[in-house]
Amino acid sequence: MKFLVILPSIQRGGVESYALTIASSATVEGWDIHAAFPQTSGTNSLIQDFVKQGVNYHPLAINDPKTREHRVIREYLPRFIQTILALLEIKPDVVLVSLPWADQCFGVLFACALLNIPTAVVFQLISSRFEFSSYKLNLYRWMRTRKQQWVAVSQTNRQLICDSFQVPPHEILCIFNGAKITSVDHCRYEIERSRDQVRQELKIPRNSRIALTVGRLAPQKGHSDLIPVIPQLVQEFPDLRFVWVGDGEQRDELYNSILDAGIEDKVLLLGQRSDVPRLLQAADLFLFPTHYEGLPFALLEAMAHRLPIVASDASSIPEIIEDQVHGRLFQSHDRGHLFETLRWALQHPERMQELSKNAESRIQEFSEEKMIKETVGLLKKLSGIL
Predict the structure, then answer these.
(1) What integer pLDDT is reported at residue 68 of this predicted model?
(2) b/e map of 138-176 (b: 16 or more CB within 10 Å)?
(3) In this structure, are 324 and 231 located in the same domain?
């Protein structure tokens, strides 16, 4: 079977890693796998990783313009034509379209529908209800009749899709994102070694406590909420260091704010990293101040590594973490509540360890294995194999 993954992405993140995971897993089925997405400086490493997995890569410049005012057909036409040409060349039996944003890839979805190619459309992120014209809603409705199955990654995500596109809930399939499950108990030596090595590499004291944040440096992720509370926290906890993994359009702005706050020796911006599991092993706390999410892979991975968690209550996060059971949650956008919750977590490390054990049990319901099995099963069903 010939399987095609399509992405509109111009940079790498959780959505793109998800697509790579599904494509890589499909190689076990013996499928002929292809991937099509824009070739940019932000996706070069992703292209290399797809190719390493034996996936055939096709450049496809379908990223939407930065303005989201998609009201004129000419804005869709170039992407529609490019997708049609790619589909006619590759001739896939089934397509997976992974969407970083709910209103992206209209031209791509329309092309797949026009050619009546079985397509799974995975909505990784929808922050709030979208408003569409009745004309566009009717087009989306028609697309869904053309062998398209829309997929949500959380129940919150699913409800927003239903509200935005005026779709009955039973028409949207929910397949939760998942993390790779590792056995923490069998790698204690490796964890201790990582702790020492990471602190040495980052040039921070061996006895420092690391609060790790993984995510794009973008307004969505809430890094700017952290900066005002850090000076107060490091006064009470001078051994505390904040380590941020990720890159993005807000990097310079955040760095300047860090300098203005005089905390440049307490906050380390590491940029994009390929060794996130190692950093998770070395950290003492996972801090996730996001404003909205689909179902965040970074948070799931922290849970799988039994890392104590302090996170906002944004979007789908309460679906996987219950406050005081699996970690600590604070009100999204509320810096005062963020400060008090993080301060409590730092004051009660033993209790946080207990919560992290509960989270490790909870993550079994959100495993990468389950996500892959359900997604590959859907692709088989759409293609007619099942």
Answers:
(1) 47
(2) eebeebbebbbbbbbbbebbbbbbbebbebeeeebeebb
(3) yes
